[in-house]
Amino acid sequence: MPLHSIFLLLVWLGLNNTLAPGHIVLGGILAFLIPLVVAGLHTPQPRVQRYGLACRYVLMVMYDIVVANIEVAIRILGPMKNLKPGFVAVPIETHNELMLTILASTISLTPGTVSAEVTKDRKWLYVHVLHMEDEEALIQQIKERYERKLREVFGC
Amino acid sequence: MSFLVELLVSILIVAGAGFALIGSIGLVRLPDFYTRLHAPTKATTLGMGCLLVASIALISLAEAELSVHELLITLFLFITAPVTAHMLAKTALHYDIGFVRGTRGKELASKARERVSPKENDE
Amino acid sequence: MLNWAIMIAVGMICLSLLLNLWRLYLGPDLPDRILTLDTMYVNSIALIILFGIFLRSSLFFEAALLIAMLGFVGTAALCKYLLRGDIIE
To answer: Which domains does chain A have, with CATH numbers?
Structure first.
């Protein structure tokens, strides 16, 4: 709840692009009332356990986004017949909705991969890859680089 | 305004527009829907990121106070881009759009459509 | 120099919008067209932001934010429609 309020206040100040005291008071009132009103819609989610790790995860993903963009840009401008697209199923161990959403979003934002579908039992994630050299290496990279760190952030 | 800031902002603007252009080139060049999906979702996010950073820097200098509200658009685009990509991929799978020749793991598509595990045998 | 950079960037964004139109015409399937519309709205946000930079004004921010939100909702609704044949279940 407090995180929700802080986020709402920051968005309000950003939208009005000001730090005027009046807006801080109005934003504060809204940030206090809105979480109370929407409390009924809230479903229990796991909490971030280690904030330092979460920050490092975000920075790592941003770095990967830049690298991925340059990589994909080179592939797009290069010859099409060198492209080896692939469709793989990645086994996953995170069955929680929030963590699964973050993992799938991370995969979609980084190196030439888009998550396409998750199985009903949430044990497999289907991923489309723009250029796949080695299937095993890709699965290992997703599991080591993103999933394990995400599990550490949420402490499970 | 110092020359250095101007140079930096100019580079950011041209790089941002360049990434957007590369995304659109990819949209036209790439062979099938699934590969085409990669071009806009990636190229446009970084392109927009560059442009918005340039906008923040320049307008903050022009109005002599920090103007960060462009960050909201960046944040919004970064949250929605993977969701859109995921929904489009899902739609294409259920619409039974074919893969380009040479795609590895093509046979997994029917399993993905039924949302069952790839190990599961057909009846 | 800055104005030259902006002019070049506007030219590039317009070119990418034209390429998007070409893909919109080619298709071949409905998801391709939705993807293209999605790219077009992101590019039009870029155009608005560039215009804002050109005029050194942040007045256009609201327009850009509105396009971003409506574009996302539109794409999501179209996908949902193709998936289920119904937007609201």
So the answer is: 2-41 (no CATH), 51-153 (3.30.70)
Q: Which residues of B touch C20 (CB under 8 A)?
A: 24, 27
A140 Cβ partners below 8 Å, 6+ apart? none
Taking CB atoms and an 8 Å limit, are B16 and C39 in contact across chains? Answer: no
E strand segments, C3-76? none
In contact, B46 and C41? CB cutoff 8 Å: no
Q: What is the pLDDT of residue A111?
A: 63
Q: How far lies C78's CA from each of B9, B72, C45, in Å?
A: 37, 25, 20
In a domain, B68, yes or no: yes
- Residues in A closer than 8 angstroms to B82, CB to CB, are 104-109, 115
Is B49 part of any domain?
yes
In angstroms, the separation between the Cα of residue C86 and the nearest Cα of chain B is 13
Domain count, chain B: 1
Asked if the structure places residue B123 within a domain, the reply is: no
Q: Which domain holds residue B39?
A: 3-114
For A90-118, what is the mean pLDDT?
Answer: 81
Q: What is the pTM of this model?
A: 0.84
* The residue to which tokens 């949209």 are assigned: B27
- Note whether B50 contacts C: Cβ–Cβ < 8 A: no
> Do B24 and C56 lie within an 8 Å CB cutoff?
no
> Per mean pLDDT, which of A47-61, B93-107, C35-49 is the most reliable?
C35-49
Which chain A residues are closer than 8 Å to B35 by Cβ? 83, 85, 130
The residues spanned by each domain of chain C are: 2-84
